[in-house]
Input
Amino acid sequence: MLLATFFSQLPFTALLNRFLGGAVTQLLGMLGVHPHDPAAPIPNYVAMQILVALLLVVFFLIARSGLSVENPGPVQHLAEFIYGFFKNLAHELIGHGYEPFLPFLITLGLFILTCNLLGLVPSLESPTANPSVPLGCAVMSFGYYNFQGIRHHGFLYIKQFLGPVLFLSPLVVLIEIISHLARMLSLTVRLYANIFAGDMLTLAFFSLIPIGAPVVFQGLHLMVSLIQTYIFVLLTTVYLAGAVSEEH
Output
């Protein structure tokens, strides 16, 4: 019963399916994909990601429209704090030339954080509690840092997969490939497991003890959301720093 409630169609999902369901079903049919329910082809985790994107766009529009040097508002202060946090993180780990990577790191961090926090809002859920979303973020992170490594070093990027000893290179290449692929698995499982567990725990206590006790778990969920976002972006930055490092 609990799982059925958790995975049932949310109000925002139902709204999207009502207005966009037919078009989405037709589009999926053209691609050879047949949804389980043609009347509701948009699942909760996709609808929640759309909501997150809309929220972030609104946030940045508000921040952009209210920019002021003499009298900055609270939204501008928040935006500057976010920018400063990611700037310091990237500068510390990547060093000189970190600036081009900031847009990706900030976007990734804000997307994951907003997804995580969405589960705190009644009638919504965290899309990162579905494994597809953390996996998508991990694949984006994996593709981005490898692309930047190739862009920065060119063909010489392969040197970091070969190791220092030439005759051991075939073995080192295999180990490095497995290691890099394991990074995606690690990022995915860590984020998904923590957010899913937090959502389920909060939902369980709301069902059993609707007054008082859930507030504690809401606070824990908030803390876990912040920590997991930081870890995900931190590891991505570390991988990025290794890919573009001149030491390779």
Observations:
- The chain is about 70% helix and 0% strand.
